[in-house]
Specification:
The chain is mainly alpha-helical. The chain has 2 domains: about 180 residues, no CATH class; about 90 residues, no CATH class. The chain is about 60% helix and about 10% strand. It contains 15 helices and 8 strands. It has a 3-stranded mixed sheet. Strands 6-3-7 form a 3-stranded antiparallel sheet. Helix 4 crosses helix 7, helix 7 packs across helix 8 and helix 8 crosses helix 13. It starts with a helix and ends in a 7-residue tail after the last helix.
Length: about 350
Amino acid sequence: MGRNLFIAFLGLMLSGCTGAGYYAQAANGHLQVMRAARPIRELLQDPATDPGLKEKLGSAIAIREFASRELALPDNGSYRVYADLGRPFVVWNVFAAPEFSVEPEKWCMIFVGCVSYRGYFDRAEAERYAGELRRAGFDTHVGGVTAYSTLGYFSDPVLNTFLRQGDTETARIIFHELAHQLLFVSGDTVFNESFAATVENEGLRRWFARSSQPEQHLAFLAQQRRRAQFVQLVETWRGKLRALYATRRSPEEMRRAKEGVLAELKLAYAGLKLAWGGDGSYDKWFGQDMNNARIASLTLYTRLAPAFEAMLEQEKRDLPRFYRRVQSLSRLPGEERASALTGNMPGNAE
């Protein structure tokens, strides 16, 4: 879809709760990304294209074809063009939570509904908005994002922001973002991200098996186990913060207790790191300011992934059947959908 349709689409969104200025930066940022895009096939045939880039793009095309052929993901123009943005991230997301709550703030827009973050194509603008929220008393977190989805309205490009991280990351993002194009429930971030994470993991499992890369597969599985343990650790301490915030204490007492819980979380991570043999994959996450927004930004993405994984296993890992089941689930009212998924979590399912 072209530029005019994007602007018309944006005009429809302006009736949402977010202001016109925010959508203007989103429109401009997206158009800059699309202007930078060139067909990958064209780049592969161009003798001026760097050989190293050609190799990465060749892998990206193979991954893209695999996604539709083997994972039954949308077969469209997405990830068949490439854009070098000259920066490490395409978007910076702003997350916020009240000082004494681990529930993220939400911003509402037409079509996508209410989401738990607000994205900016310019980091300075993201930091400026986060500053406004901090002055209003919120905990905030600004995180760089290597890819975003237009949910199939446009042909999303392969970007330098994730291509530079290798084939595994390229495959992970392509599978994940195409899963969003296949199924997206307006206003349910946890559902959408947990579903896409499940498709992403199954896609990588099949990609590694197909590519005969056992060492990379084993390394990926080890990384996934560490990430699951890390997320569970943070989720546990999120529960402790939630319990703390439910108590009746003065703001001063609450702040001191909050600092204590966050300090305990850092100590618990140090113990987990020792169990990993000193692997410091998440040192940077803990090295930055710890607050409610940072914690909420992590746990909202994969909270229900185990329920989707159990569902995939129940469908004998048949992806089309799994997709049909998830689509049926997506049509339920929000509370019923959440209840059904929670009931399917390991340990809860019958």
